[in-house]
Amino acid sequence: xxxxxxxxxxxxxxxxxxxxxxxxxxxxxxxxxxxxxxxxxxxxxxxxxxxxxxxxxxxxxxxxxxxxxxxxxxxxxxxxxxxxxxxxxxxxxxxxxxxxxxxxxxxxxxxxxxxxxxxxxxxxxxxxxxxxxxxxxxxxxxxxxxxxxxxxxxxxxxxxxxxxxxxxxxxxxxxxxxxxxxxxxxxxxxxxxxxxxxxxxxxxxxxxxxxxxxxxxxxxxxxxxxxxxxxxxxxxxxxxxxx
Length: 243
Hints:
The protein is mainly alpha-helical.
């Protein structure tokens, strides 16, 4: 006999009766003990059945009476074996139900323990204070966002100046540059002597010289016009940068 069964058969049973009923652990131990006993009984009956079959084969028709008696005993053992199978099924079902009940009881007990702990934690919490705290957190987050936006924005230096005045001053500078460029252009001087009514054959050199001076004048004008266009482009870029 195991120590557990001795415990429950002895002082354990008295203790459980004093408490008004066995505990789930005690009942499960008893059921397992019963299953073990019936399993051993099954093995014994199976052995007896094989033995009676051997006796019946041994006697056969030589000793019908002994052979029939052996077969009758085999039938009784088989009947007992079937009964034990049914009993074991019932005990197994009861043990599983008891185990599930015990598990559910433990689960509910632990859930109740957790609920009491949660209640104790929430005793020191005021919902109104929590609402105020969340409102303060939201306000501080808004302030932090405003500060971040202000820091990330580009500093608007020079916003106090009038843009129209700046554009007028820029146009004056542009006009001054154009006037300066026109002053730097030197046109060829007009000859003091009058030109002949028609060119003479011996004056080919003079005609070539005049053509060269006229070409040089046109070149200077083109350079002045090109410089003016470049100055206008620079002024436009400067105005775009200032705006």
